Amino acid sequence: MKAFLRKLAVCFTAGSIIFVTLSSANAALPFFSTKKDEVPSLAPMIERVSPAVVSISVEGTQVSRQQVPEMFKRFFGAPNEQVNERTFRGMGSGVIIDAKKGYVVTNNHVVENADEIIVKLTDGREFVAKKLGADEQSDVALLQIEADDLSQVSIANSNELRVGDFTVAIGNPFGLGQTVTSGIVSALGRSGLNIGGFEDFIQTDAAINRGNSGGALVNLNGELIGMNTAIFGPNGGNVGIGFAIPSNMMKGLIDQIVEFGEVRRGLLGIQGGNVDAKLAEAMRSPSNRGAFINEVVPESAADKAGLKSGDIITSINGNDLSSFDELRAKVATMGAGAKVKLTIVREGKKQDVDVVLGDAGKPVTEAKDLHPAFEGSVLSNGQDETGNDGVVVSEVQARSPAARIGLKSDDVIVGLNRQRVNNVADLRRLVEESEGNVMALNVKRGTSTIYVVIRQ
C-alpha cells in the first residue's frame, strides 16, 4: 500500500483534485517535485519558458478609399476617389523561436499594416522589430529583432498531440503583461470556423483573451505545441474555447519565409468534401472520417500520383485526417515541391500513394517590408524573358516611393550592388547587408538591362 501511495501525486485545480500516476515516462515533468514537502508546481517550467514569450505593440495607418459620386466629380472637379487615413495602435504577443537570429513568430493580424513594431521582453528591454514575411491566409508572421542574451522555446511535434494532453498558454491579454493559464487539448483539427483561409486548429480550454494572439501554447515540458490565435465567445471574452495554430503548421510556413522570403503554397489538385457515415458505407470505407475526392484536376500533382475520383484520403504522412478542410490546410502549408504520403481507401481497400505537391501560385511580398523605397510595388519570385530567376515587379502604384525611384510594372530585379538576385529572399538579404547610402538595382526591362538607384 505504501508503495502504491508513493506512486501518486496530487495536483489541486480549481474545484477538483486530479490523481496522477507517476512513472519513468513522466517523473521528470516540471510540475512534479522530488524534494520532500515541496508542493507540485508548474513554476520551474514557466520560469524557463516565459523569457521566450514577448509582448508586441504596434502603430500604423489604415487607409480607406471611397469612390466619389459622379455628380461631385462633374460639378466640383473632385477626384475619382476619396482617401481617408486613420492611425491605430494595437497589442499582442509573440514567441522567440531562434535566439541567435532574433526570430519572433506571431500572428499576421497582430502586425498587419503596422508602420512600427515594438517587441518587449520579460526583462523590460524593448526593440524595434522588422517584419521578414507573413501569410495572411494562415495568419502567421515572422519578425526579427537585434538583441543579445535572448531565450528561445523548443518546438514540439504537434502531430503527436492527443485530446486530453495538458496545455499552458502564455501571452499578454488586454495589455496586462505576461499571463499564464492552463488547460488541456479539447480537440484537434478544428476547421470551418471562418477565422482564416486555412484552418487546422488545436482547441484548448486554457484561458485565451484579446492580446494573447501570437503567444505560446506549450506542453508540460515547456515545448511549443501551438500559437494562440483566436477565441470563440459571444462577447469577445474567454468561455473556455480557444484556438491555436499547430506548431508543425507554423514551422512549415516560417521555414518557407526564411528560405524563400515568401510562402510557396502547396497544391494537391483535387476537389471534394468531408466523409460521413453514409458516404463511408457507400464507398466501403472502414473509417467515417477523411477527405472524399469528387474530382481530380488534370495534370495536377494528384493526377500524376494516380489519385482518382471516389478515393477517400484517410491520412497524410501517417497522421489521420478528420476532414477535407484539415487536408487542405496541411497541404497548403507544407509548401510546393513537398513529398507527402497519403493513405487512401479505393474500392474498400487501403493503399499508400506518394505525391509531390504542385505550386498553388506565385505569392507576393509586402514590398515596404524589404525597404521603404519599394513601397507601392508588388514583388514576387519569377523569371525574366530569358528564363533567368529574379524578382518580378507586377504592380507599381502611381506617385508611390517605388514609382519615384523608377521601378515599373513587369520589371525583373536580377541584381543588387552587382550581386545576383534569384528570389525575394536574396533581395532581402542583400538589402540588409548593404552598406552606405546608395543601392543599385540591376533590372531587366524587356530586352534591356538598366540600373535603378536607391539613395537612402
UniProtKB/TrEMBL annotation:
Q: Which PROSITE patterns match?
A: PDZ
Q: Does the keyword Transmembrane apply?
A: no
Give me the Gene Ontology terms describing cellular component: periplasmic space
Could you tell me which residue ranges the PDZ domain spans? 257-348, 363-424
The primary location reported for this protein is periplasm
Q: Which family does it belong to?
A: Belongs to the peptidase S1C family.
What protein name is recorded for this chain? Protease DO
Q: Which organism is it from?
A: Glaciecola nitratireducens (strain JCM 12485 / KCTC 12276 / FR1064)
